[in-house]
């Protein structure tokens, strides 16, 4: 990934350990770099990170994600 800047990240912490993070890049703006530890997935951590990062954004935000390919 490019354009990583720790000042733009929100992190999720459980029991003193970072279990997830998300970044809002100023271009666009664009929601980027969402990650949740594999053993903590399915608990709503990713959703909570996205909501916390977008809470103060006044307008639309871009999200670029790969398209799932089946078969």
What does this protein structure show overall?
The protein has 1 helix and 4 strands, in the order βββαβ. Strand 2 and strand 3 (30-36) form a beta hairpin. The chain is globular. It has a 4-stranded mixed β-sheet with strand order 1-2-3-4, with helices on one face. The chain is of the alpha+beta class. The mean pLDDT is 89. The protein is 14% helix and 34% strand.
What would the average pLDDT be, to the nearest integer? 89
Task: List low-confidence stretches.
Answer: none
Following the backbone from N to C, one meets helices and strands in this order, namely EEEHE
What profile does the largest beta sheet have? 4 strands, mixed
Instruction: Give the helix proportion (percent range).
Output: 10-25%
Q: Trace the largest sheet across and list its strands.
A: 1-2-3-4
Report the span from N to C terminus. 28 Å
Based on the model shown, name its key terms.
71 residues; alpha+beta; four-stranded mixed β-sheet; 1 helix
Secondary structure elements and pairings:
Elements: E1 9-14, E2 17-25, E3 30-36, H1 45-54, E4 62-63
Parallel strand pairs: 3-4
Antiparallel strand pairs: 1-2, 2-3
